[in-house]
Amino acid sequence: MPVVNPEKLVALQHAAEGIRNICILAHVDHGKTSLTDALIATNGIISPKLAGKIRYLDSRPDEQLRGITMESSAISLYFSLLRRTAADAEPEQKEFLINLIDSPGHIDFSSEVSTASRLCDGVIVLVDAVEGVCSQTVTVLRQTWIEKLKPLLVINKLDRLITELKMSPTEAYTHLNKLLEQVNAVMGSFFQGERMEDDLKWREKVEERINAAAVKASERAGGSNPTVFENGDSIDTTNTPAEYEEKDDEDIYFAPEKNNVIFSSAIDGWAFTVKQFAGLYERKLGIKRSVLEKVLWGDFYLDPKTKRVLGSKHLKGRHLKPMFVQLVLDNIWAVYEATTGGDKGKGDPTMVEKIIKSLSLNIPPHILRSRDPHALLTAIFAAWLPLSTAVLVSVIEYLPSPAIAQAARMSDLIDNSPGADFVAPEVRDAMTNFKVSKDAPVVAYVSKMVAIPQSELPENKRRGGGALTAEEARELARKKRAEIAKAQAVANVENADINGLTDALNGTTIGIPANQSTPPEPESKEDPEHLIGFARLYSGTLSVGDSIYVLPPKFTPAKPHAHPEPQKVTITALYLLMGRGLEPLTHVPAGVVFGVGGLAGHVLKSGTLCSQLSGSVNLAGLNMGSRPIVRVALEPVNPSDLSKMIAGLKMLEQSDPCAEYEVLQSGEHVILTAGELHLERCLKDLRERFAKCEIQQGEPIVPYRESIVAAAEMNPPRDKDLPRGTVVGVTTSKQVSVRLRVRPLPAAVTEFLGKNAGAIKRLYSERGAEEVKRVDGTDTPTRQISEQDGMEEAEAVETGHILSLTEFKEQLKQAFLEAKSEKDIWKGVIEQITAFGPRRIGPNVLVDATRSSICGKALQELASPTAESASSASTNTALTPSTFTDKIAYAFQLAMAQGPLCAEPVQGIAVFLEDVTVSAPEEENSASHNRLGRLTSEVIKTVRDSIRQGFLDWSPRMLLAMYSCEIQASTDVLGRVYAVLTRRGGTILSETLSDTISSASTTGSQTFTISALLPVAESFGFSDEIRKRSSGSASPQLRFAGFQMLDEDPFWVPFTEDELEDLGEKGDRENVAKRYMDSVRQRKGMLVQGKMLVRDAEKQKTLKR
Questions:
Q1: pLDDT band of 1030, cuts 50, 70, 90
Q2: Which residues, other chains included, contact 647 with Cβ-Cβ below 8 Å and sequence gap of 6+?
């Protein structure tokens, strides 16, 4: 096929109606890259024979080695169609530009899926015909739903139904029907969830309006005769519909008759739609094409005598095949039988000739004579049902152009962005109405930064296919002469008798004798990495040299000048993305996916480019598919390479959407990744591309949490005179004593606080702004508060609706009421909460239970007099309990950040501050504030230690970070999978029998989908072990699922008679919680109790006697 020139692709960028921005999403190994290869082959970039084998967009060596995609990459393709404007008109050629993004399917790289989907207008979702709907299939369909992208379903690997599972056409039709139902069930669940949410919002809105109208009416009546509105009469609800408006869900489902389902085999290079076969059979059957499109799929049958289409009711007992089986699948099965069927798998030549003749295909003679049956199979399908035609025609006809897509999507996208009410009308109008003029506001979204070696940039690469300029030819000749002279000099030193250039060059290739000195090797030139932004332009036109604002993900248009204030950046280069290569551009119109240079150091991972600062929109509040959970400490093998490693880590953090880099307080350099495979890829990039030095990694640092429970068998309280968890702490100077009590929070409260950290953060930021306003008398927030506000709104996009203070208190009250057995303890506690922790937003509370309420209230309305009285009390000259309230709160934060078990964060505890007593001598009262500095440290240390003692008075527990694990395995290997899960401490949640037969099974047994929970600490090497034990037929998908309590006391020792009898004094049963606790303490350099270096040692000098 002819190669398409980049100039033609650049010219097509200006015809917006002919552009399609699509990405291919699917579960791992469902055939995304093979399908992409077939589409790339249409542009002559690779040979059609190599499609599915070369994996063109997998440009990394480790991607080729593992056979999976790890990075999303884009390519621009050209496609032309002959179309008639009218039935009797001449066909006209129409040209299209398809910007295609191939994305990974592995769960470790789901953040790449999130970044790819925001750039596109339509999606091709692939589903394996054998494996069906898998975990990542649901994930990508959800991403499609959230981003409001139009999906196109491709059921791939239909050849496996024929060659592996040996299904008949009728069985395959039934199987495909069930598969389509599974996909539609997933889409229906998304619609149902959204519908229920809308219904709830509508009910709340109606209720609010009725209540507001009732209050107004009662005020008018003067309160003497309040009116009760039973039916809501005389209430203004003009903006609220009287009944909930049902939305039609017909458009969200996949149906072959709607032209949004493609059946394909990417490896064999064929695909078809129902519309295609309707065109083929239109003349033969004498049925209109529009009618055939509706009846080719479903329970419709063709009467062989009358050639009429019958429904299932009119069969009258006759056993006819469905039309899809008779007219479509039977023919495809016949081609496979003719080419690769038969006893020896060599097919039937006479049947092949018959098929070629009946289909009027032109197959080259050398392929007909070929001994390779697969070559003949692919040649017949390439001439009859080419994959690229079916897919690209469906993309052009079904998926929208940028102008149509933005009109449908942009309003919701802008409304869900931070500070949406402050977006300028001209920016909103330009994005929604797709304005491409140079005067229109420029808005672009940078989804990620891609690292490109300097040698790969277009300005440093030789132009393909063109002649060298005179200057380039002279430079090349100069280099060649220098190389030849150097080689000749080396040869003359080795052998004085050898003269001539040819022999000299031969001598250098043979090698240098052992007794000769080795000539110095030329130093390899460094090839530095450059960061290119992977972007989509929504409005306006962007040119090289333009100055544009870069908005970070925390930016909000409500406070455009808040710290850090967005900076203006000059665009240094624009690129057309062509997979492994880049083509330079001078300007880019709206609706195009492109690469942009000049953003290095200004965009960390993602950001928004906007031509104006006031009224701009922030599109970068994107919810990543997976958060990094695996932390590993790194250090260079050679200490002098530390600066290289740090620079490499910073570059890696910018170029990877999910990787994060941080420096711990201990000085360790830590990288956070999404999983084991992601970690392996990051380390490879770091060693070979970014740092270019040897780096060694430590053991993975897995997060834990600490908590307490009221267990049935606990040790008696440490102080028998005080209730459990109560501690009276006295400072070393004996001048301040603090009495507090530690209790476990109800599970419902802990869960609620963990989910609503954003509401707590907003509460603190609003309170800080109010304090500044009260002190300074201005509305200008401080730098810190502004930054918190921006972060807060970015989190609102990720987590959804953030509760107001009233809603937060009401729902927190309901959570406390769920603990029915402890109602008296938690009664009225909400109004006494003075702080949350750790980091002021965690799931722990500090409760002020003192008689005089010395601490401020966290959950109070702004400008409350309680806070002012508390602050004014602290300004008194004498030392009072109120003087130390901020020190106690700080000590609480410290104790929550580092628990007593292994210095990990604490969750699920309440600390009741019961009494603070200050006993300073009267003669020292005048100098009391001079001693405040010393007392501050004493109070902080005493309160922190007291909280830890109260914590240990209960039964402590470790909370483990957990992965949700999904494994598809046949019954042959089910036992081995369970053995691996059990040995690693996994918990089986469910086991579902799939409708499909496992292709990896030797006995044709069915597939089970196993859902389990696995501790992150035990997950390293888990995937490899599962694959080895199951001979590659089972492969797990791991996703972080939060923290789960390990119901075992790390300090447990046998003390009852039965336990002592069964386990002995040392406790022969392994304490798993203690093992985890000790491993963390040892890593952090803390004291490990009971650690024995040697047991039952003997003198070594006596061993030989």
A1: confident
A2: 690, 691
Could you tell me how many helices (H) and strands (E) the chain has, helices first?
Answer: 33, 33
Per-residue tokens: 368:
């007909």
Return d(Cα 661, Cα 686) in angstroms, integer: 12
Main-chain dihedrals φ then ψ at residue 669, nearest 5 degrees: -95, 115
The tens digit of pLDDT for each residue in 113-165 reads 877 888 899 999 999 998 888 878 888 898 898 888 999 999 999 999 998 88
Question: In this structure, are residues 299 and 322 in contact, taking their beta carbons and an 8 Å threshold?
Answer: yes
Q: What letter would DSSP give residue 522? A: P
> Side-chain half-sphere of 365: how many Cα atoms within 13 Å?
0
Convert 82-130 into a string of H (helix), E (strand) and C (coil).
EECCCCCCCCEEEEEEEEEEECCCCHHHHHHHHHHHHCCCEEEEEEECC
Tokens (6 digits) for 692: 């270019």
Give the span between the Cα atoms of 823 and 494, in whole angstroms. Answer: 95
Tell me what the mean pLDDT of segment 56-84 comes to.
82
Evaluate whether 900 touches 851 at the Cβ level (below 8 Å). no
> Which of 250-254, 327-331, 864-868, 1025-1029 has the lowest average pLDDT?
864-868
Q: How far is CA 530 from CA 450, 452, 471, in A?
A: 8, 5, 27
Residue-wise pLDDT tens digits, 788-841:
333 333 343 334 456 778 888 888 888 888 877 777 788 888 888 888 988 888
| Residue 703 region by backbone torsions, left for phi larger than 0, else alpha for psi between -120 and 50, else beta | beta
Asked whether the beta carbons of 442 and 548 are under 8 A apart, the reply is yes
Q: pLDDT digit string (tens) for 408-431?
A: 888 888 888 888 888 889 999 999
pLDDT score recorded for residue 1103:
54
Classify residue 570 as exposed, middle or buried by CB count within 10 Å of its CB (0-12, 13-18, 19+). exposed
Torsion of CA 50, 55, 61, 62, to 10 degrees: -130
Q: What is the identity of the amino acid at 1015?
A: P
**How far is the C-alpha of 378 from the C-alpha of 269, rounded, in Å?**
6
Q: Which two tokens stand for residue 238?
A: 């003009």
Q: Which residues contact 127 (CB under 8 A, 6 or more apart)?
A: 26, 27, 30, 133, 137, 153, 154, 155, 156, 179, 183
Averaged pLDDT for residues 894-905: 92
> Residue type for 896, please?
M
Token pair 């062989």 is at which residue? Answer: 304
Assess contact for 262 and 153: CB atoms under 8 A: yes
Strands 122-128 and 92-102 come out as unpaired
Please give the average per-residue pLDDT across 728-756, as a whole number. 90
Q: Enumerate long-range contacts of 55-58, CB under 8 Å, 24 or more apart.
A: 56/579, 56/580, 57/33, 57/102, 57/579, 57/580, 58/33
Measured CA to CA, the distance from residue 990 to residue 971 in angstroms comes to 15
What is the distance between the alpha carbons of residues 305 and 567, in angstroms, rounded to a whole number? 76
Backbone angles phi, psi at 225, to 5 degrees: -135, 80
Q: State the residue for tokens 């628990």.
A: 899
pLDDT bucket at 519, cuts 50 / 70 / 90: very low
> The whole model's pTM is what?
0.76
Instruction: Indicate the SS3 state at residue 653.
Output: helix
Residue 936 corresponds to which amino acid? T
- Residue 796, pLDDT score: 39
What single-letter amino acid sits at 27?
H
Beta strand pairing status for 844-848 and 833-837?
A: antiparallel
Query: Residue written as tokens 């081995």?
Result: 976
Residues 933 and 968: beta-carbon distance below 8 Å: no
Single-letter amino acid, residue 931: R
pLDDT computed for residue 790 by the predictor: 36
968 neighbors 1034 (Cβ within 8 angstroms): yes
Residue type, 1040: F
Cα torsion through 285, 287, 289, 292, rounded to 10? -80
DSSP reduced 3-state for 578: strand
Please give the C-alpha separations between residue 678 and each of 103, 528, 529, 628, 1019, in angstroms, as whole numbers: 15, 23, 20, 10, 14
pLDDT at 468 over 60: no
Determine the length of the chain: 1105
